[in-house]
Amino acid sequence: MGTFARYLLLTLCFSHAAVSVAAVSVRDDKGLSVRLEEPANRIVSLSPHATELLYAAGAGARVVGVAAASNYPPAARRLPSVGGAESLNVEAIVALKPDLVVAWASGNPGHQVEQLKRFGLPVFLSEPRHLEDIASNLERLGRLAGTPAAAQRAAADFRRAYREIGHEYAQRAPVRTFYQIWHQPLITVNGEQLISEVIRLCGGRNIFAALPTLAPTVNREAVIAADPEVIIASGLGAERPEWLERWRDWPQISAVRHDQLYAIDPDLIQRQTPRIVEGARILCRDLDRARRAQAR
Question: Chain centroid to CA 60: how far?
């Protein structure tokens, strides 16, 4: 073999090796394969939780567009908006020329996500249902974005944090807990929802865990009958929702009788991101207060 032929062969081999190393492939939360020929440089996030996950995974510099409610970290607020989680601006997304779109499996309109796929855009569907899923999302998004080391560190820190909380609280006396997402209609969470896992982490018992849908609507009579020892509410922001105080009209409920009505910033407890450990610590402290109140 001549010198030129050997050079050409080596060049082809190295080129093939480079492509093989650069290509990344993961499965998303729906079990679908997402393959990129090289790590993504232009990423669009279609939900606030996906935006936070990308930044936490070290990929913030690669995010070029976000869902309208993406308010954390602060840098995300300066990025172009591609519409709300429930109604996407498909034209704006395509115009950003992303090489990866991170969508919310249960929160984004399915037909619009499929439309993005028809445009040839790779889509990763994110749907963390468990605390471990958040860590796994970090790791997979880090691989897709070419930031695996940062993502692995973030995942390890998150795992350590929530396991420490579990070790501290999980064996404490159970507390009957009602988590209220909204008041009209009266919406809560079932046992498959991530918030319910946080309640269990703190040693609580979700009074509506057995209901079949993730965010079921219930009536006031069902809450009264279940007699929660603590009521945890969220609203539209960090402030305490005024409708939480309406439960004081039913003093027969243990939580009302013992003044165990609390609010947690929904960004800290309802988003599937590493910050949920902050919300978990608050919820655990609230449940401990309810334990002490019941013991008096």
Answer: 16
